[in-house]
C-alpha cells in the first residue's frame, strides 16, 4: 500500500475545521491542544496502519509534543482557528513565486527543519521516532491484557 501525501498542515486544518464545526460558539483552539491532537493522530495512525500519517517530525519538548513545522508557523499565537495554516502557507508560496532573490524551495518547506534548527534554549527537545509510538502502544496493550 502506498503511503499518502498528507502533510501535518492537512491534519491540523482538519482538526481545526472539525473543532469549529462541533463548537461554533468557540471555534478557536489553543496551539498546545492542537499539537497534542496532531501527535495522537500520528501515533494512532502508525499503530493502526503501520506507517506515518505525515512525514513531518514531532519532538518531545518540556511542554509536550511539538511538530516543529507547525510551531514555526504558529509561534506567537496562543489560539488559532481553521484556515490559519492554509493562509500562511499561501502567503509563503506567493512570496516564493514573486521573490527571485530569495526563493523558497518547492520541496516540503520543513523537510530538513528539525535537523538544522534547535528548539528554543529553555526547552529540551528530543525527536520522537515512529518505532517509539508503536512500542509504547504495544507495551501498554500487553499490560492491560495481563491485568485481571
UniProtKB/TrEMBL annotation:
Where's the Antitoxin SocA-like Panacea domain? 34-95
Regions of compositional bias (Basic and acidic residues) in chain numbering: 121-131
| UniProt-annotated stretches for the region Disordered | 96-131
Taxon lineage: Bacteria, Bacillati, Actinomycetota, Actinomycetes, Micrococcales
Extract the InterPro entries matched here: SocA_Panacea
Protein name from the UniProt record: Phage-associated protein
Amino acid at each position: 500500500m502506498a503511503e499518502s501525501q498528507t502533510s501535518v498542515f492537512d491534519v491540523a486544518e482538519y482538526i481545526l475545521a472539525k473543532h469549529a464545526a462541533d463548537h461554533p460558539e468557540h471555534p478557536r483552539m489553543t496551539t498546545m491542544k492542537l499539537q497534542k491532537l496532531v501527535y495522537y493522530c500520528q501515533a494512532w495512525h502508525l499503530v493502526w496502519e503501520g506507517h506515518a500519517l505525515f512525514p513531518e517530525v514531532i519532538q518531545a519538548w518540556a511542554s509536550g509534543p511539538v511538530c516543529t513545522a507547525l510551531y514555526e508557523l504558529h509561534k506567537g499565537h496562543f489560539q488559532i482557528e481553521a484556515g490559519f495554516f492554509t493562509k500562511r502557507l499561501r502567503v509563503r508560496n506567493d512570496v516564493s513565486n514573486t521573490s527571485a532573490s530569495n526563493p523558497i524551495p518547492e520541496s516540503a518547506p520543513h523537510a530538513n527543519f528539525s535537523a538544522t534548527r534547535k528548539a528554543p534554549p529553555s526547552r529540551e527537545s528530543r525527536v520522537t521516532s515512529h518505532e517509539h509510538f508503536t512500542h509504547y502502544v504495544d507495551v501498554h496493550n500487553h499490560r492491560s491484557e495481563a491485568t485481571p
